[in-house]
Amino acid sequence: MEELVIRDADVVDGSGEPSYRADVVVDGGRIVGIVKEAAAAGCQRPKARRELDAEGLVLAPGFVDMHAHSDLALLRDPDHSAKAAQGVTLEVIGQDGLSYAPVDDRTLGEVRRAIAGWNGSGDDIHFDWRTVGEYLDRLDGGIAVNAAYLVPQGTVRALAVGWEDREATPRELDRMRQLVAEGMEQGAVGMSSGLTYTPGMYAKDAELTELCRVVASYGGYYCPHHRSYGAGALEAYREMVALTREAGCSLHLAHATMNFGVNKGRAPELLALLDEALAAGADISLDTYPYTPGCTTLAAVLPSWASEGGPEQVLRRLADEETAGRIRHDLEVTGSDGCHGVPIEWDTIEISGVGDPALADFVGLTVQESADARGEAPWVTARGLLLADRLAPTILQHVGHEENVRAIMRHRVHTGGSDGILQGAKPHPRAYGTFPHYLGHYVRELGVLSLEECVAHLTSRPAARLRLPDRGLVREGYVADLVLFDPATVAAGSSFAEPRVLPTGIPYVLVGGRFVIEDGRRTDALAGRAVRRTPA
């Protein structure tokens, strides 16, 4: 007898087609039967050792978070309710060009310092891996939800070239090609870049194109955080489209927003650019989060020249009065490339987390508010905080536009990604609320997307980008990564005031046929594993 039958569910199967009522049978971690309109037909209903009454609930494929920063959280926090409770059954990590494999001892220490604001210092993690394959093996030891990995181009460059702003030598470029190839062979699904973060930002297009050729040869995709989301946003999007067309590589645009005042109302221009490329045969997808503020580290807004050489060099420059003055001028007058070419507005920069608990008074305030309270210029406050906390502060950047968010999420190649940073006392609520916020706010309350459309954006589309042949749909033979939610009540519990509140209306989540959320509570199941690239 099979393990589980989910009775009388309203199945939204991920295809975008209308929902239907069915009994769904799960056994051995897979969907083994779907009996449509079973009760009304009066047929012999499937039986199983356990029956779950799903009356009034939608059954959908588990959600795929196409842009996650859980690289260490998956190892640190077996509970991981921040994602599991949202119905997320697969996260794509290794984002923005910086993560923890492949590394050597030197590079690992540098990367840990550089992205402590994203993932914590890592002092509580046993880094017993150095290669992509070894990291994926570590995930296979048991995690809350599944994870796929992108080879981080910035980490690869740090390993082969260092943190200097210069072109790679032919030998160094060969080494980077080798590292990307090894990562793909060991199971990565593609390559990411952070082209406003050091050292990835120092790569010219020719270098990136060569690495994308390697990715394409394995059937992977390129996922860039491109060079500007502000003053040069459209040019940066065009650059990525042209680069990947030249390389013959699929393109997935990370957190594809149009932010800052210069881009208010300009989402249609981005979508027209993408439509033109798609019509010409380009293979493009994108992800967004359903909120207007962004989230990153405070150090990320610094100009690239100030970040050259790695974290210790940044701290030395900040400590030097003359150099700090140049940094300030770039930020406040010129428009730092780290702040997307737009002069910084300190009243839009809210501190969301710090590494040193003694600095907790900064959290929840903008830099401008903290500066006003201290009777000093905001640059003085920001500089002092960066030095005192050794570049660890994270920020919310209130620079988005609701009309852009809605326009982009409607596009036919759109997928969902939280870009959720789980660190800090006051993280962005998207880390805990992205997927229920889509379903509750943008589907039920606003009607921006139909329920069937939205579920397809969050399930089958990302599964197709990841080339996963047996995930992303409710189909017989598919892996039983499933979520059951109440369409009348599903909602994000997280807010900017209380960002760590779990969602409502999602009582059941299964990963590989095992309940990780049951009756609205996290079980002790560690059913997730590394999801490796499907060979081309």
Number of domains: 2
Report the CATH superfamily of the largest domain: Metal-dependent hydrolases
Q: What is the mean predicted local confidence, pLDDT?
A: 96
Estimated structural class: alpha/beta
C-alpha Rg (nearest Å):
23 Å
* Number of helices, where a helix is a run of at least 4 consecutive DSSP H or I residues: 20
Shape: globular
The CATH class assignment of the largest domain is Alpha Beta
Protein name: D-aminoacylase
Enzyme class: hydrolase
GO molecular function: hydrolase activity, acting on carbon-nitrogen (but not peptide) bonds, in cyclic amides; N-acyl-D-amino-acid deacylase activity
InterPro entries: Amidohydro_3, Metal-dep_hydrolase_composite, Metal_Hydrolase, Metallo-dep_Hydrolases_sf
Q: Could you walk me through the main structural features you see in this protein, from its secondary elements to its overall organization?
A:
Keywords: Hydrolase. This is D-aminoacylase. InterPro entries: Amidohydro_3 (IPR013108), Metal-dep_hydrolase_composite (IPR011059), Metal_Hydrolase (IPR032466), Metallo-dep_Hydrolases_sf (IPR050378). Pfam families: Amidohydro_3. It is an enzyme of class 3 (hydrolase). The protein is an alpha/beta fold and 536 residues long. The protein folds into 2 domains: 336 residues, TIM Barrel, CATH 3.20.20.140; 100 residues, no CATH class. Helix content is 34%, strand content 19%. It has 20 helices and 20 strands. Strands 1, 2, 3, 4, 5, 17, 18, 19 and 20 form a 9-stranded mixed β-sheet that branches. It has an 8-stranded parallel β-sheet with strand order 6-7-8-9-10-11-12-16. The protein is globular. It starts with a strand and ends in a 14-residue tail after the last strand. The model has no long low-confidence stretch (mean pLDDT 96).
